[in-house]
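In keeping with the milestone schedule agreed at the kick-off meeting, the structural modelling team has produced records for the first pair of proteins. Each record is given below as a sequence line and a structure-token line. The laboratory manager (R.T.) confirmed that both were archived under the project's standard naming scheme.
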Amino acid sequence: MANKLINQMGLPKSIANVFAARNITTAKATFYSNLKQIYEALSLTEFELMEVLDVSLADVTSAIARISEITCPPYQTALTLMEQRVQKEHMGGHLPTRLKGLDNALCGGIPFGVLTELVGPAGIGKTQLCLKLALLASLPTAYGGLGGRVIYIDVESKFSSKRMIEMGSKSFPDMFHTKGMAQEMAGRILVLQPASLSEFTESLQQLKISLLQNQVKLLIIDSMAALISGEYGQGPARQYLLGWHISFIKSLAEFSRIPVVVTNQVRSQTRDEACQYSFQGQSREKAVEDHTGYDSHLVAALGIHWAHAVTIRLVLDSKSGKRFIKLAKSPISPPLAFPYNITSSGITLLNDDGIELSGPEINSIHCQGHSDIINFEGERFQ
């Protein structure tokens, strides 16, 4: 509302014309226009506006009161917000992962309309989970799927239709043994393999129309970090590009009301980052000392701005020979960890209760006791 034009706010015509003559068109300040600051109504004090507009204090006070009334959001009760959320959930929904404990924690599965991130080291099972989600979204609704198409952006050429069909035949043998069903399911998954960041960006810009025309029910990007890091490394250019992609991918999720799943890689954590978020008032030296006690110095790639953009973050972790899916970020669930294995049918939880974690452990990423998984045909897969 702060960007609404002043001439649309019902001000007296005489004062509205004065605002227009001084090129003050909106309530919100715009700071970058050819490197020159443009002052807008609410960025100035009443006395500054008097000087700029050359009108009386009474006229300025009346105008600012009206502009503030229009631009300030109305109050809402907690009951109203709860009802709106229930309505959104009804209109949106979830993609069940078929991992009972995780689905319960997420109130149904991967939510529609937001970004869900899978982060973890190579070989931990991120692509395995993506393949299973693609399969589940393409399943007929009679089998608990979404009955639609999937767009799978395969950045590192890890997509395996053979592995996905193996998951389907093991998880849904009755359906997949029906003649032609495997081909039909595979035909619903559209795989894009961009060779560069520019090609990926061009694909994104064409997706809005494709999401509607092709009845797409799930978008997967595996992996975002490989594209951004591969061409630009670190620095301002990378952050600028990442900011654009964050905004665009979020808009795709909100526009289409489908689940969007993005995988993220890990990188080494610097000494400064180890004590960047010292929330308990401990000294820098104590933070570094505590951090050296951890057996992991890995963090999610892409940085803090990306971390804020995702709504759900699932950390796939391996410690002491055991694998865990950690629900590290969610607006509706406590931080939980679920032990899992990778089998011929995909990722399976070892129990559905979950372990509630606190402190830095929920976001820590380890690689202990981890080795590649080998499927029943002797081929390695991630």
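The second protein of the pair:
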Amino acid sequence: MGYLSQPALKNLKKYSYKGVDESLVSHYLLTPYWNWFIKLFPLTIAPNTITLLGLCIVVFNVVTLLYYDPLYLTEKDGATGPPQWIYFTWAVGLFMYQSLDAVDGKQARRTGMAGPLGEMFDHGCDALNTTLEVVLASRALNLGRSWWTVASQIATLANFYLTTWEEYHTGILYLGPFSGPVEGILMIVTIYVITGIFGPTFWDKKLLTFTRLDRIPQVVQHVPNIGLNESFMVFGAFGLAFNIFSSYRNVIKATKSDGESSLKPLIYLLPFVVSATLQIFWLLSPSYHDSAIIHSPLFLPFLCAWGLQFAHQVGRMILSHITRSPFPLWHSMWLWSIVGVVDAQLPFLFDRPSLIQSTPKRTAVFIYLTLAVSLITYARFCALVIRDITEFLGIACFTVRKKDGEGVWRETRDIQQDGYVKRL
């Protein structure tokens, strides 16, 4: 008995990717580049290998952060931080990730490997990259250990969740005029370049002072003079609100055309709300201003554990989409998070000391254990799903091979449409 049921496996053969890209940047600037870039890859390279390569580049960027700033401290906290040239490597790495993420689908069509496995693998890597870029971008913006980084994590994950939720209900991946995979990534690349030139402290400059709008009394009276980095977070909040409106509008159209309720899909937003709420309450221990996790070296592993749990959550959503299965409302890692939250909040809830996280050392052990459990459960999910899909569809994950009509592994180019090997 595999991870996927037989009905779910059979539905894999009914899956077909549908996407809409309304980005002008994508159409007029990036697409010609992507069409040139894909020709650099031989047909012997599997599309999932290209996707994984992009994620590995981002992981390498995170490794450089850990090498130069293992405690995730900013300059205002007294740390020296990474040398400024490192931020240029982050910019190049993220741009290369975007490029590889864009051409893996083209490679899939070139090699005849397009299908639901590529959809799963692509979205899985994107989900992991989301948290990794929050970590890097928050460091480049000189936010570091702060609630602003937490807010950035929530907003970024919410945008990704909304896109997946929308695709589940509409069957179409919508990328609007301003989307995260295109303009959002390019904006972060620009942030890395600016940080590489001027340093992270550049983003601490006040918005009104930097733009010289503080000379206008009417502006000063109504607009707070917050930092450029904090202004970027506010901009992200407006972007999230716009994406919520756009996604729900598309879902309403899809549900009405199918004669279904347009309110029921809102229930499927609750898993993200529950997950994010648990993480926030965990971080609130012992108080908002004195978080034991945010203001310690544990903040980075906590964010990574959160990101792995999120990737697992949206991975199950995507799997439900491509197999036409019920939406996954429950996630088993919530039980672990609930234990962490209740234990951390015991002093507030029952005026009793924490049982597990009673000392900084025990808290560190529990957070790193949370990271390990999150990694193992997500890795197990990926391994089981890849195994089931490849065995049922007779395709390889990281090589350009398929099973022929007799069940023998062959190069894709050697198999005819009827499933049998080409005869000379």
